[in-house]
Amino acid sequence: MAIYLSTESKYDPADNGRAVDDAHLSNRVPHVEAVVSVCQALIENHIPHGVISRYNLCSGQGNDLGRHQAVILPRC
Fold first, then answer.
1. Is 30 helix (H, G, I), strand (E, B) or coil?
2. CA–CA–CA angle 45, 47, 53 (5° rounding)
3. Distance between the two ends of the chain, CA-based, in angstroms?
4. Please, is 12 exposed, middle or buried when counting C-beta atoms within 10 Å of its C-beta (0-12, 13-18, 19+)?
5. pLDDT of 44
6. 52-61: long-range contacts at Cβ-Cβ below 8 A with a sequence spacing of 24 or more?
7. Which segments of 1-76 does DSSP mark as H helices, in order?
8. Are β-strands 71-72 and 50-52 bridged in parallel, bridged antiparallel, or unpaired?
């Protein structure tokens, strides 16, 4: 199993439209929270897994998707 972690999704969509210096910005990162939850579930069920990123999808050197039976796309 592979879990996809998008490094470009490190924000809370609830903060959309707010200034970056807004004191009321959320400190949540739902995508990362979802990835961690999936990893915890796989660990608890003794399912081997790894985390992949865009590098694994786009780089000729890093393209090792063939070694995974499935790719999980966490939804937040």
1. helix
2. 125
3. 19
4. middle
5. 98
6. 52/2, 52/3, 52/4, 52/5, 53/4, 53/5, 53/6, 53/7, 54/6, 54/7, 54/8, 56/2
7. 30-44, 54-58
8. unpaired
pLDDT number for residue 40: 96
- Count of residues for the chain? 76
Name the one residue in this structure whose structure tokens are 């200034």: 19
Handedness of CA 50, 51, 57, 63 (dihedral sign): negative
Q: Kindly list the averaged pLDDT for each block of 10 residues, start to end, along the chain of length 76.
A: 87 86 87 93 96 78 74 83
